[in-house]
Amino acid sequence: MKKLKNFPYKQVLVLGLAKSGTAAAELFLDSGIHVRINDLKADQNEPAVRQLIEKGAEVITGGHPLSVLDDVDYLVKNPGIPYENPVIAEAEERNIPIVTEVELASFLHEGTLVAVTGSNGKTTTTTLIHEMIQADQQKVSLAGNIGHVSCEVARSTDADETMVTELSSFQLLGTEKFHPEIAVWLNLYEAHLDYHHTLENYHQAKAKITANQRADDTLVYNADDESIARFLPDVKAKRVPFSISKEGEGAWADDTFIYFEDERIMKKQDIVLVGEQNLQNILAAVAAVKVNGIRNKAIVDVLTTFAGVEHRLQFVTKKNGRLFYNDSKATNILATSYALKSFENPVILLAGGLDRGTSFESLIPHMKGVKAMVVFGETADQLSETAREAGIEKVTKVETMQEAVDQAYQYSAEDDVILLSPACASWDQYRTFEERGHMFIQAVHKL
């Protein structure tokens, strides 16, 4: 396992444990750097915490006293902790560098680093890129917001290995020197304003994916996204577009085929993944791997077999002619609108979740195929009103996922799609969108 070399800081504070904080702390300890850990809820008797203490970490729990910053010259924060946290605010006052653990991957990984971000489609695109490189029998590892801590993965990668990492705006905001050789910027819409406070702050956080790129690096970007376009004049890297509407440059598609530049890759009808959103993800992945030298056969092998990522328009089962899809990862309106555009069959939509103060009015144009809705969570009343404005007469408010699935089935007929695509984060009722998706799948199988 690799260690940090020539690291310029001597006293590090890790704020927030979870997987990313634990991995960062272990890296620092193994590298001979003094580590102080501050976590509000961690129990010092937990085996993982005890192990860190035994390795030499200083652990402070139960609160966030400003004294945790004493003698600290570097702070690694959990991505989810807001910058209003008093310790982070005080660290900013003291000009202490504040990063997320993905920053540490830049100190460790020696091969090609592919970083993927966007408001939607990150996990599918990241997974596609990984699968395509692997299908070409090249060394590749998967990391980032997809469930594998970047600095932990980077410790065991080889110099000839590609590391593909999915990055959120929370993670990117905490980067200073993070440098991907290939950056993929999928799209840029309104999201996470409860964290970033303004749309401009959110956009600037996303733009950090290319901030440290050089002329010999590559930015793969969505040529159909005007919000990304305004950042392009400042990009130093080679720019490779992908587009579902413009032909001839980068990765693109017509009615029959997908292409890279003037090279025909494969027929669209042979691709397993459905929907316009997934076509964008596919083109982004094709562009990223083509500039990385991956052969067409590997691309075709993946796209003719890859059926999707769990919780992202995931086909669950067919029961009595009804098709069930789990799109729990649709935590914003855009993701749900893409899901609705993926189906020609009538849809019973299950939606609702955390109230972030967002209007659902922009969802209405995409609801023409929705015959009924089942709503839940903090936004249930807002979504009920949105459904009525869209002319949907069958709307039911429920408390649990089992009730939602049962009611959706009662509304449905043969050949209907029963779709969980919440348009909201899950944290009002569930710990994660994965938990919400698993509850949906469990409820479907109980029918």
From TrEMBL:
The keyword Nucleotide-binding belongs to this UniProt entry's keyword annotation: yes
Annotated metabolic or biological route of this protein: Cell wall biogenesis; peptidoglycan biosynthesis
Domain Mur ligase C-terminal: 311-424
Keyword Nucleus: no
Chain residues that bind ATP: G118, S119, N120, G121, K122, T123, T124
Assigned EC number: 6.3.2.9
Cell compartment(s), UniProt: Cytoplasm
Family: Belongs to the MurCDEF family.
Name of protein: UDP-N-acetylmuramoylalanine--D-glutamate ligase
